[in-house]
Specification:
Layout (H helix, E strand, L loop, with lengths): L1 E10 L2 H19 L2 E7 L4 H7 L7 H5 L4 E6 L8 H6 L2 H8 L4 E7 L15 E7 L9 E4 L7 E4 L5 H18 L4 E6 L7 H14 L5 E6 H10 L6 E4 L1 H15 L6 E5 L7 E5 L16 H13 L3 H17 L13 H15 L4
Parallel strand pairs: 1-2, 1-3, 3-12, 5-10, 8-9, 8-10
Antiparallel strand pairs: 4-5, 4-11, 6-7, 11-12
Helix pairs in contact: 1-10, 1-12, 6-7, 8-9, 10-11, 11-12
This protein binds adenosine-5'-triphosphate (ATP).
C-alpha cells in the first residue's frame, strides 16, 4: 500500500467545484488499487485575501513543501478582488517560483466524442512545454511618473542560459519518452527580439546536439498561432517561453473543444519540491455556484499528477475513464452541449474508473 500526501488548494469560484470531482476520481482510483491519498486542504486565494488581507500566509510554501503533490483549482475572483492583487501576491506564481517548477506542461489531444472547431478529421496529440519561472513573466520593471503625461512603465524579460537549457532538455527528453513523432518544435521570435530570443535559439540548438535521434523545428510565434489551427496534427512537443506558452496553450485548449477539458502540470523535474497540477482554466466567476463547470480539466490534472508520481497504471485508468465517458456522450456539461452537472460528470468518470478495474 502506498499513501501519497496531497495538498489541495481549491481556490475560488469554480475552483472548489471542479477540485471536488478531481478528488472523487482519485478516491475512485484508491478504491480499486493499492494507492491511498491523504488530503490536506489549504483555503488560499481571493476569499482568503478578503478575510485575512493576504492571499496565502507568509510561510505558505513551508506548509506545503513536504507534500508529494499539489492539486490546485483556480485562484481569483475578479468581480471582488482586482486581479493585480491576486497575481502580485499570488499563490500560483509564488509556488511555481518557490518550488522551481520550471516546466509548465500542457498536453493537447482531441478527445473522443467532443467536437473540435477545426474542420475535418485531425489526429492531434501534442504537448506544450512552457518555461514557467522566468522570461516575460519575470517580476522586473516599474512604473514611473505615475498619473502624469510622462508616465512610463518597464517590464523586463529575463532569459538565462540555465533557464532555457533546462526547459529545452526537458522537452527533448519528453519527446524521447513519448516516442511519437520524436519532434521538438521551438517557438521563438528571434526575428524581432534580437537578444533574448537569439539566446533562446542558440541554446535550443546546442541542447539539440545531445539528442540526435530527435528532429527539430523552429517556428516564429506568429506563424505558430496560425499553424496550431491549420496543421496541429504535425506537432509533437512544442517548447517555448512563458508568455508564448501561456497564449499558445490556451489556443490549443480551444481546439480541443472547451477550455474546461484542458489540464496542466507545473513540474519540478528534479523532484526537490512538490509539483502542482491544475486545470488550465481560471476561476470562471461567470458560471460559479451553478454546478455546471466542466471538471474534466481537473480530472485530467489528476491523471498528470499520477503520471508524475510514477503511477502509470492508475493514470491510464483515469485517462480511459475520461475518454470512455466522453465517447459515450450521455453525461456532458453545458460547455459540451449537454445538461449534466459538474458532480454528475465527476460521478460518471469515477464510476467508469471502478468499472474498468472490474469492480464497478
Ligand atoms: P480568471 O480571472 O480567474 O482567470 P476568467 O473568467 O478571466 O477568470 P476563465 O475562468 O478561464 O477566465 O474563464 C474563461 C471562460 O471560460 C468563461 O466564460 C468561463 O465560464 C469558461 N470556463 C472556464 N472554465 C470552465 C469550465 N471548467 N467549464 C466550463 N466553462 C469554463
Amino acid at each position: 500500500m502506498t499513501t501519497y500526501r496531497i495538498a489541495v488548494i481549491s481556490g475560488d469560484n469554480v475552483g472548489p467545484e471542479v477540485v471536488a470531482e478531481g478528488v472523487k476520481c482519485l478516491d475512485g482510483v484508491a478504491s480499486v488499487t493499492d494507492l491511498r491519498f491523504a488530503y490536506t486542504t489549504f483555503p488560499w486565494g481571493a476569499g482568503h485575501y478578503r478575510e485575512h488581507g493576504e492571499v496565502m500566509p507568509e510561510d505558505g510554501l513551508e506548509l506545503v513543501k513536504g507534500f508529494d503533490a499539489i492539486l490546485l483549482g483556480a485562484v481569483g475572483d475578479p468581480y471582488r478582488v482586482p486581479d493585480k492583487i491576486i497575481f502580485a501576491r499570488g499563490v500560483v506564481q509564488r509556488i511555481r517560483r518557490g518550488f522551481n517548477q520550471y516546466v509548465n506542461l500542457r498536453p493537447c489531444r482531441l478527445l473522443p466524442g467532443v467536437a473540435t472547431p477545426l474542420r475535418g478529421e485531425k489526429d492531434v496529440d501534442l504537448v506544450v512545454v512552457r518555461e514557467n519561472t522566468e522570461g516575460e513573466y519575470a517580476w522586473m520593471g516599474g512604473r514611473h511618473y505615475q498619473d502624469t503625461p510622462d508616465e512610463l512603465a518597464t517590464q523586463v524579460s529575463i532569459f538565462t542560459r540555465r533557464g532555457i537549457e533546462r526547459v529545452c532538455r526537458y522537452a527533448f527528453t519528453l519527446a524521447r519518452q513519448r516516442n511519437k513523432k520524436r519532434l521538438v518544435t521551438s517557438v521563438t521570435k528571434s526575428n524581432a527580439l534580437h537578444y533574448s530570443m537569439v539566446l533562446w535559439d542558440d541554446v535550443f540548438e546546442q541542447v539539440a546536439q545531445d539528442y540526435p535521434d530527435i528532429q527539430t523545428n523552429k517556428v516564429y510565434v506568429d506563424a505558430m498561432a496560425m499553424y496550431l489551427i491549420t496543421r496541429p496534427e504535425t506537432y509533437d512537443v512544442i517548447v517555448t517561453t512563458n508568455l508564448f506558452g501561456d497564449i499558445l496553450s490556451d489556443e490549443a485548449s480551444a481546439i480541443q473543444g472547451s477550455i474546461g477539458l484542458a489540464a496542466g502540470g507545473n513540474i519540478n523535474p528534479e523532484r526537490s519540491y512538490p509539483s502542482m497540477f491544475e486545470p488550465i482554466h481560471g476561476s470562471a466567476p461567470d458560471i460559479a455556484g451553478r454546478g455546471i463547470a466542466n471538471p474534466i480539466g481537473t480530472i485530467g490534472a489528476v491523471q498528470l499528477m499520477l503520471e508524475h508520481l510514477g503511477e502509470h497504471a492508475a493514470a491510464a485508468l483515469v485517462e480511459r475513464g475520461i475518454a470512455d465517458v466522453l465517447r459515450a456522450g450521455a453525461v456532458r456539461t453545458p460547455d459540451l452541449g449537454g445538461s449534466a452537472t459538474t458532480a454528475q460528470m465527476g460521478d460518471a468518470v469515477a464510476a467508469r474508473i471502478r468499472e474498468l478495474a472490474g469492480r464497478g
